[in-house]
Amino acid sequence: MLRLDELGSERLSPRDKGIPARAFGMTVDEFLASEPRLSEFWTPLVALDNEAIQNNLRVMAEWSASHGLELMPHGKTTMAPALWQRQLEAGSLGITLATMGQVRTARTFGLNSIMLANAVVDERSLHYLAGELVNPEFRFVCWADSVATIDEMERTLRAAGTPRPVDVCVELGAEGGRTGARSLGEAIEVAKRAAASDVVRLAGVAGYEGSLAHDRAEASLAAVRSYLQGQVELHESLGELYDDEGDIYVTAGGSAYFDVVAEVYAEAMAADSRTLWTLRSGAYITHDDGFYRHVSPLDEAGDQAAGSAASARLRSAMRGLARVVSHPEPGLALLDGGKRDFPFDEGLPIPRQTAPDLGGEWSALEDASIRAMNDQHSYLGLGGQDVQLGSVVALGLSHPCTTFDKWHYLPVVASQDDDRVVDLVRTFF
């Protein structure tokens, strides 16, 4: 089993994208002790803001607690155990993951409270899980959306000799959505099958509302609200099937509609203190400058969070940094970062500032835009402004889930105004 502090003994090398040459051969701890500055790093780069991360951890923890909700943030967003630890220290009940491979990674760091937002039907994964359940301190719950899923789990878990039943939440889906039973009737049949098993235990209701909408239009919010009401109805209909031998969950996820989750769950929560009403929002730890900025109820520039103070808002804690490597025609510059470096699936990067170099003085880029991206280039449309060859552009990024996977280490600066590198966040994709 690894420990987080052991990551500090890993040695840096030219294989680590963006790391300064002087760090090669140093351990992470040795490099950080040398008081590095962001200006030493190579472009392209994604940098994180420690002050903003700490703000976001506090804001989400306080918001969840004030609404009576547990938080098991989705760790696949970052796949960074050091950031998971900060989420746990801020009060999270555990970490959510998406694949059994991610579970295996998390277990090597001693993570003892995991929700798998997925089904487990692979024999190898189930044998591994049975072995991990020997540890009585390991809290694990996964999902199932069909009777066939329970059948597959039973067959392998019995052969593996699982030391205790596997907790399973029935996943409710929706027409046109992702996974999940497509009706309450189907979901109830899955629940009955789980409750009758000796190697699987019915542990609640789960699902993902985020696949049903991508904005905060009234029709989108209505679709999300209707789905969540179906979750509550399903949970209430399963009352007689639940046992008294473990935790019961009702869980929704996503970082866009957690205010609607709280609204819909509120009445049922008041009448049911036994259940762990749980959010799985994961992107909040860094937030972003694109998709989540427009849909999150707690965005710093938004007005959706009625009654929230300005200090209780999420802030973007990540930015891309790329250098102008070509200025082939008026109004167009090419940057040295592209799809291999920055996310593009929920909107292209947004040029925010430019400076002569990473350690220089920043000035606003108000009319610029990224027109397109290649693997290692971004097309910077300049509008009425201009940039110099060799200068650096700071980019607002959209969608943390497809940012972290592109980086082995991400430098963390003290704050947006203080470029001292205080940490290197290691990812495990």
TrEMBL record:
It comes from the Bacteria. InterPro entries: D-amino_acid_metab_enzyme (IPR051466), D-ser_dehydrat-like_dom (IPR026956), D-ser_dehydrat-like_sf (IPR042208), PLP-binding_barrel (IPR029066). Residues 317-414 form the D-serine dehydratase-like domain. Transmembrane segments: none annotated. Gene3D superfamilies: Alanine racemase, D-serine dehydratase-like domain. This is Amino acid aldolase. It comes from Sinomonas terrae.
